[in-house]
Design a protein that fits this description.
The chain is an all-alpha fold and about 140 residues long. It has 5 helices and no strands. The protein is about 75% helix and about 0% strand.
């Protein structure tokens, strides 16, 4: 299964060059995947799970062809419509149980990630530092 190897290689490479990614990657993706599996019977959880796994698979293929490119931030473009939808769900529902607490955490980390993505795209377009490597040092 080449795609599993590609994801593993991407994760190892990012963790090797970025102390920040050693923390941020698992903090972002693990709750999305685990919660998506636990709450699979909920519509929002399925959307989050599919978008997270899909983004990681696409990012791994981008990394394989263009290692450490800031353009890999584009894989989260699917979150642009999902993020405001999740915010609205939280506003309507409130944080009243474990599911909504998970949803709030995922929405928060997704929003932070989208802000980082916007910064990465801006840096890619405005500078010659188009790689992640060393960017957070």
């Amino acid at each position: 299964m080449g795609w599993i190897r590609d994801v593993k290689c991407m994760i190892e490479d990012l963790q090797r060059v970025s102390p920040f990614m050693r923390i941020w990657g698992p903090l972002l993706n693990a709750p999305m995947v685990l919660g998506g599996l636990v709450f699979f019977y909920r519509f929002e959880a399925v959307l989050i799970l599919i978008s997270c796994v899909g983004s990681v698979l696409i990012a791994a293929q981008m990394h394989k062809r263009m290692p450490f490119t800031r353009l890999s931030s584009l894989v989260h473009i699917v979150w642009l419509p999902l993020f405001p939808y999740l915010v609205q769900v939280l506003i309507d529902r409130g944080v009243v149980d474990l599911y909504s607490a998970w949803l709030a955490f995922v929405t928060l980390t997704m929003g932070i990630c989208l802000a980082f993505d916007a910064l990465n795209i801006a840096l890619y377009l405005s500078s010659s530092n188009n790689k992640y490597e060393g960017a957070d040092r």
